[in-house]
Amino acid sequence: MENWQCLLLLTAITLRPCSGAVTKNDDGIDPFGFLRNIYSALLLRDEPFVRDSELKELRRPADLAVIQQTKDKALSQGREEADGPVVFTKNGQIKGVTVDKAHIFYGVPYADPPVGAYRWKPPRPVSPWSGVYDASFPRAACMQVCSGSSSAECPKKVSEDCLYLNIFIPLDLNFTSPLWRPLPVMVWIHGGDFIAGSASKPMYDGRFLSNFTHTVVVNLEYRLGAFGFLVSGTDPLSTATGNYGILDQQAALLWVQQNIAVFGGDPSKVTIFGESAGAQSVSLHLMIQSSKSLFKQAVLQSLPFSIPLKTRHDALRLGKDFAKETNCSVSDFICLLSLTPQAVLSAQMKTRSKIVNPFRFLEVFETWGPHIDGELIKEQAITAFQKGNWQKEKALLLGTTSEEGVLFVYGVFNKPVSVVEAIMYIAAIFKQHTLRILHKYLPLYREADFRHMLTQEGSAVESQIKTKGLPEEEALTVIVPEES
Q1: Which of 10, 258, 316, 433 has its CA 20 to 30 A from that of 138?
Q2: What residues contact residue 109 under an 8 Å CB cut-off, 6+ apart?
Q3: Bridge partners, 94 (sequence order)
Q4: Can you name the residues that pair with 98 across neighbouring β-strands?
């Protein structure tokens, strides 16, 4: 009997299945009411939660600069600028840049900076500015840690002040004459496991797509990691209640509805699209009722249906672990707000390295991210789609990215994985299907490192789930059919 057959027999013996009254604007949209209704207890224009008198009592004086920082609108004030189009938005004038392939408006603010007392609060509408806003260069990406093999692709600058979007417009659009037929709009939500990525990543340069499809392309930033998804309690006034990254996306989509017409776009023809965590975000907007009016159709690229959203209980437990790493009490919101961005990132990474339940192993691929809060997100995405609790009237395009599993497996396992370890991980992921998976794949691999086998198994099942919309049980039957 070969070694792999012995291991298969041992697994068969030991494995047990696991259960698994506000005035509307001239567009008919009430921006304040829209965001306020998501969390009705929170007034978006309320006084700061941390008052001036309380700032003196913050734990670390060096952190006051973070708490007190204000938004720099980067206004161009009489300095020489390259030629570029100028548009008049609801908040003020914006000047873009015209390059070889497109007109581009970089770093357009769609919400006020979520800094200081607003670190863990829903996004607030943009404050108007005077003068001309300089949109000729990208702004900093949202806070994230860059490490591993993909560090070369990391943003050069990161900041908590990051709620911006980039707009790409076909070069043949003439801003000096009326546009008889507005262009369709495509809004890109980037991936990155909800802890990384950027709207300004070179891979997401929207110039080619804008010209090739003759559309207005919008790339948006949203808060990531603990900044976007920390849950420390249930009171939105005195705790972090999570899902801020998804609320940021909603605020950006609302901004598009209100402003994209002056950029040549048609707000009634908005397609949202994304890959991986971006596709997961798209799937959530398809089931979130308050997002319904913000887009017409959707494209999902490599939707990770098999990765479950956290429950409120799991999100709170993660928040408690995060607070421990910062030496703050989870109930001491002032202490959490006083943390430097670097301290937040450090605690985020330390918390992410913990696997709480080995039989819910897929959670290691998305430690930080959206959770089921009962208000914005009411159920698991895969459950909502199976029950028909989504916007079925909208056109939907679903696809998968080949070999995507390589990024995740080699990102999680930075050292070779032995055959025994591989079997343990497969059992944790595939549960009662483990024997069928091992019988199909294990004899094919004789290398000492079994990471490649893990990527192939994961990619095969994910492909069926994503491209055919199959539940995980049915997808496994397609990939590993029962013996006849």
Answers
A1: 258
A2: 71, 73, 91, 126, 133, 163, 164
A3: 87, 133
A4: 103
CA distance 232 to 251: 23
CA dihedral 167, 171, 174, 179 (to 10 degrees): -70
Assess contact for 465 and 430: CB atoms under 8 A. Answer: no
Which residues, 6+ apart, have CB-to-CB distance to 230 below 8 Å? 120, 240, 242, 319, 322
User: What is d(CA 436, CA 8) in angstroms, rounded to the nearest whole number?
Assistant: 10
- CB 306: neighbour CB atoms within 10 A? 17
Over the stretch 161-216, which tens digit does the pLDDT of each residue have? 999 999 999 998 988 776 778 999 999 999 999 999 999 999 899 999 999 999 99
Spatial strand order in the sheet of 132-134: 75-76, 132-134, 93-95, 86-88
pLDDT category of residue 439 using cuts at 50, 70 and 90: confident
Q: How many CB atoms lie within 10 A of CB 118?
A: 20
- Predicted confidence (pLDDT) per residue in 464-475, tens digit: 444 444 444 444
Token pair 């973070």: residue: 66
pLDDT digits (tens, 9 = 90+) for 84-117: 899 999 999 999 999 988 999 999 999 999 999 9
- Could you give the strand order of the β-sheet that contains 102-109, starting from the edge strand earlier in sequence? 97-98, 102-109, 164-170, 216-220, 183-189, 265-275, 297-301, 396-399
What's the rounded Cα separation, in Å, for the pair 355 and 359?
A: 10
List 397's β-bridge partners, or say none.
Answer: 299
pTM of the model: 0.74
- Architecture category of domain 42-399 in CATH: 3-Layer(aba) Sandwich (3.40)
Q: Spell out the domain ranges in the chain.
A: 3-16+405-479, 42-399
Length of the chain: 484
